[in-house]
Amino acid sequence: MRAIAFLSRLRVPARFFEDDDGRMGRTVRAFPLAGLLITLPASLVFALSLAFDADPLLAALLALTVQTLVTGALHEDGLADAADGLGGGRTRGHALEIMKDSRVGAYGVIALVLTLALRAVAIADLADHLSSAGCALALMAIAALSRAGMVWHWSQLPPARDTGVAAGAGQPQPAAVTTALATGTVLSGLLLLVAGVPLLAALIAFAAFAAAVPLWTRYVRERISGHTGDTIGATQQLTETALLVALAIFA
Hints:
mainly alpha, 11 helices, cobalamin biosynthesis, cobalamin 5'-phosphate synthase activity, magnesium, 0% strand, transmembrane helix, single chain
């Protein structure tokens, strides 16, 4: 439940936070399952919209709208800030300073527009290959795996700052990272197969995931030598986009 509260705007009973010190070292193991549950409302909206013969692109945009409301645009905000900082920062310090600024610059706007467009079109394309229920399951599979990608990125880099959300949450424990990656892989694999995604397309999507997270992590390491809450959120957005595009092309 702490993972759901961390990754969304959904209300979680206070009893789950008794004696909570804010550290997420063990909690990250539940990120893939939390991602699956958080995406359930958007997946249902997409499936029901298709069942009522809505245009696939409209259904995709409705699903993204619901998802944004549930998460509070948490990961989109991270992507925009990371794009601004890493794209516009001349030095490590300058990049981190830009990422702390609440204003969104050109790099952030472009990143949001491109990823939202790619996700919407790719989600709509799923309707041409899968049933309504299959589309919902595919979205949930991608949600689980992209949250595992967040944990992977988080675990591979030290905090870029001494303060901030990521620094305060601590480093993921090795066992929790293994659990998150295993859970995300198994859940997404099973859901994609049940959804009716061809095996080759599923394997290519996993390959896209396995390439996107390390490449992004390497880039972040070179630019700011560590992770921030923004780069962790951006990992989810970039991974989700890569997975959706891979399925849209090869499913």
